Every structure is written in C-alpha cells, then in structure tokens.
Amino acid sequence: MICGHETNRFLVTWLVGLLSLISAADAQREASPTFLDPKTAGPDFADQGEYVGELAGGKGKLAAQVIALGDDQFQAVFMNGGLPGDGWDGKSRTEIKGKRDGKSVAFTGAYSATITGGSLAGKTDQGDAFTLKRIERVSPDEGEKPAAGAVVLFDGANIDAWDKTAKVDERHLLESGTRTKKKYQDFMLHVEFLLPFKPKARDQERGNSGIYIQDRYEIQILDTFGHPPEFNGCAATYRQTAPKLNMCYPPLRVADLRHPIHRRQIRCGRQENQNAVVTVKQNGVIVQDHTELTNKNRRRQTRRRRARLDSTARPQQSGLLPQYLGGREEVGRELAVPLAQLKPLRSASAATRQAVDDWQLLGGARV
User: Fold this and answer.
1) 178 pLDDT band (50/70/90 cuts)?
2) CATH of segment(s) 38-135
3) Whether CATH 2.60.120.560 fits 151-360
C-alpha cells in the first residue's frame, strides 16, 4: 500500500519516467529522419538503388542492390545473373560495405567498386572488371485497369470505400491506418504502395506496415530492399512464411502486391473449416505459392475481439470481415497507397464451389 507523501513521490517518479520515455522517442525520431519526397531525400537516396551490367570478357551478367544506411554509409549486394526476378541465380550474394567520398561512394571488401554519376564500376574477387548502370524497375502490374467486377477501393481521390479514419495526404495517396467499410470473404486484392526512405532506421523500424486480411492475417509490407527473404520481411505471411524471393524495390518507388485469398471448406463431400490459402504476387513475380495461413495475427486484436473472431468460425460466417491497411503511427507515415482494387471471388459457402485458379488470376510465373 502506498499513501501520503509516498504516493506523491511515486507519481513524480512515474511522470519523470514517462517524460524520459517520450523524450527518448522524440530524439530517436529526430535521429532517424523520414523522407517522403525524393527531391528532399539527399544524395544518399540518389545513389541507393539497383544496378545492372556485364562482366568484362563476356563472362555474364552482374547486378547489385545498393542500400543507404545513413551518415554516408552504404551496403552493396552483388548477384550473379541479374536482379531478383530478372536473371539472378538465386544463390550468389556478395555483400560489401561502402562510404561516401565527396560525390562518389567507395566500396571495399571481397569486391572493390565505386559509384559515380549513376554508374557502379569495379572488380570482383576474381579480378573481373564490371560497369553497372543504375536502373529503376517498374512492376508490370502498376496502374493496371480494374478487372471486370472489381471494386476500386482507392483511385487517388475517392475514399468512400473506407471508414472515417481514411486520410489522403498532400501527394494524393491514401495513408495507412484505415479499413474498408464492406466485408469480403474470398477475393483478389491489388494494392500499389509507397514506403518512406528511412536510411538510419533498421529492421522493423524501416518503413513498416501491412495488409491485414479479414482482421486475422497479415501480409507484411516492410522496406527490406536488398535483404534475403525473411519470415517477417516484405510479402511474408507475417511471422509464418517467408516469400520465396525478395522482390522489394527501393523505398519511395511505387511497388505492388496482388493476392487472391480463399478459404478451403469442401473436403470429401463435407463442409469443413480449414486454413485459408493465399498466393502473393509482388512486383510481377509470385513469391507465395498457395501458402496456408496457419496462425491469426493477434497483435492488433483486443481480447474481446479475439474471442468474437474465434467464436465465428462457422463456414457461412468465417472471413466476413473488413480489410485493413496497417501502419505504425508512432514512427510516422509508414505506408501510402496510390491505388487499391478488390475483386470478390466465388463464395465458399456452396457445396458445389469450384477451386480458384490462382495462377490464372495472377498471370505470374513460379519462382
């Protein structure tokens, strides 16, 4: 029991501790700036990106992903054959550190290289010379017109499909932290998104958001550009299954995810609840192939909401929940959406339900 002057001392100590936490959080934000416009993102942003070229002597294609780490520090990841989804052999990864030197960035390690004026030139560990040019890839699905029967959730202006929390920023992009008004069960969702440039941030602090499906599952959206596939990385079924390939573009570049999700409820002529299945296409490449969603993401659910969700598992009710664009408001605008479309698919409630052909819907190739 705490009483009298001890109570006052306890409250003062608690308030001082709280203010210290707030000050530390504010200092962390200032130390890790968030850039939303390439024009003001600085020279490190201009050098970060993807580079492609040839090894001298006709020895094959070489590519690199250059990641800005803040304070003039960089990391380059070299890959034989080309970029992920465009020729990379899927095995080779040579990582080296770099540092800005005036208008250039010099890398030393297994490879030696220098970035100057949009060109990355150097030698491999075998002494093979190379010159790579900076490129900007565009997803083949970017700006896609709505399919027949699709619902346009956002087109750069109209937010009628979203609840009262929906906000459009000065760039005419939908901010994260909102959910659809209507409820959907089996559907194909196409979302284009833009992640901020946060060079000093690391891991989950570096442009972190997600698409919450039916308030049960999350498709992770995170700036993991240049990383290997991770179980909590971009396009992962959050903390469940890593994507087969990391198809992240650099931050402040429009990227997209397309995924059909459906519940498999017909088995041996009986109607049963089974795990939902999702296939994810990221920037033109299918990176999740009929992946089962085995666990609910409960990070955002209150105890009462979790109990209500778990109690509504009957086939005729399951999955009828809004879609949510997640964001981490405490660290800034983590996700901005220029386009969102949803196409409802055949209901799973009928015993004669036909299987959804995810490959035909997505039009992608296996990794």
Assistant:
1) confident
2) 2.40.128
3) yes
